[in-house]
Amino acid sequence: MFLAVGVAVGVVSLGAGYGIGRLLGVYKADLEKSAPYECGFDAFADARMKFDVRYYLVAILFILFDLEIAFFFPWALVLNEIGYYGFFAMMIFLSVLVVGFIYEWKKGALEWE
Known about the structure:
CATH architecture of the largest domain: Up-down Bundle
Distance between the termini: 60 Å
Mean pLDDT: 82
Radius of gyration: 24 Å
Helix content: 55-70%
Number of helices: 4
Structural class: mainly alpha
Number of domains: 2
Strand content: under 5%
Shape: flat
CATH class of the largest domain: Mainly Alpha
Number of strands: 0
Order of helices and strands: HHHH
Largest sheet: none
């Protein structure tokens, strides 16, 4: 009984989504929607083709620095409560972040040629 209800809910959900999409005209072909994105080139060959590793490097660096910057928001909210110790701890963290950013900049990891 549980399996039948689960399958029925899944089939009804997929059918409803497909039907509503057809009703609203979501499935019409659009050249802009089928254009390549993120990687910057058309998919013209095998899916296993190699492409530049710089794309991954820039993406990983963005995630790394973005997550580190996210630590500033909770720190800013409790800065009055943690006092000078919290301030200097964050300055050490920020200096490590800046040194890493300058290192990546000088190595040319952020250049896209």
